[in-house]
Design goal:
Blueprint lengths: L1 H16 L20 H8 L4 H9 L1 H23 L20 E5 L6 E2 L1 H10 L5 H10 L3 E2 L3 H10 L3 E9 L3 H11 L9 E4 L14 H10 L1 E7 L13 H8 L10 E3 L21 H10 L4
Length: 299
């Protein structure tokens, strides 16, 4: 009981003292090391992602927003455990009864549990865009730190007997490095089955692209899912049409669950919200993609 009473305050202190998936994204546009040249530095200073990454790395506000998300979840956790009918899976993902099943939570990894902003900062510095090779190099460093508040919540959940499943769109062959990073950061991980990466085959369920529905369904077959956490709505629900309207439609039936069973972490740096603005067509020239994002602004 003492843990429940004092942990929220301890979590806040921890996140204040801290200074420290992936959807398909554009390919590299410059050679490594471009950031060391005058042209590279100029390009970095005008990178659309500069403010977003600087905010995530340096602002008190980011740490407070992330921390209050996890503190709010902690308040709901004991309530969820004690309420037999409590379940955080959509009707599409809940293929069986959750009655009598042990409790679990589902979390995304990137920008939910682990902070990958140093990777984004390197891309800005070097005048590059995301690509699988540089991403894999970063993952294998196992150097990502916890998102503020995530570690404290995960430990509190584990102490209550709640199993954590890390559903990520990191490729399955990055599973060992991901688990290694999570363990180094202090997250509770007992075995490799807790990591469920992109490409995982689920019997009786056919996945589409990077959607996580089949993996959520697999967890639900053996567990009552108390909560889901992510920085994208696709971490909680299947998005049939990745357009602004389609994304709104996907989440609308579950708005009452947000802040209770579903918790969303802030990520202005990247995500499926971005290609939704240019018809998910990364093959378009950068200038055309940027113009469509400008066209989406309200004045």
């Amino acid at each position: 009981m003492a843990l429940l009473r004092f942990l929220p305050a301890a979590l806040l202190i921890a996140l204040l003292s801290s200074c420290d998936t992936l959807p398909t994204r554009a390919h590299a546009t410059a050679e490594p090391g471009a950031g060391s040249t005058v042209a590279g530095k100029a390009a970095a200073s005008h990178n659309d992602n500069l403010n977003a990454v600087a905010w995530m790395q340096t602002s008190v506000e980011f740490r407070l927003i992330a921390g209050q998300t996890w503190r709010g979840a902690l308040v709901q956790l004991d309530r969820a455990i004690k309420t037999p009918g409590w379940d955080a899976l959509t009707k599409e993902d809940r293929a069986n009864s959750a009655k009598g099943l042990p409790p679990a939570i589902i979390v995304d990894v990137d920008e939910t549990m682990l902070d990958n902003s140093p990777y984004q900062a390197r891309l800005i510095r070097d005048g590059l865009s995301y690509n699988e090779a540089t991403w894999a190099e970063w993952v294998k460093e196992e150097a990502a730190k916890p998102v503020p508040g995530a570690l404290e919540f995960a430990r509190a959940a584990s102490a209550r007997g709640v199993k954590i499943f890390y559903l990520s769109n990191r490729a399955e062959d990055l599973g060992d490095a991901t688990l290694g990073n999570l363990r180094k950061a202090g997250f509770p991980v007992k075995d490799a089955s807790q990591f469920m990466g992109l490409g995982m085959v689920v019997d009786g369920c056919e996945s589409e692209g990077s959607e996580k529905g089949c993996r959520r369904q697999l967890v639900g077959r053996k567990y009552r899912v108390l909560m889901q956490f992510g920085d994208q709505i696709g971490d909680m629900v299947t998005v049939v049409a990745n357009t602004p309207a389609g994304r709104e439609q996907a989440v609308r039936p579950y708005l009452g669950w947000v802040g209770e069973r579903w918790f969303v972490l802030p990520n202005p740096s990247y995500g499926s919200w971005e290609p939704a603005l240019f018809n998910n067509s990364w093959s378009q020239p950068e200038a055309e993609r940027r113009q469509q994002k400008l066209d989406a602004l309200r004045y």
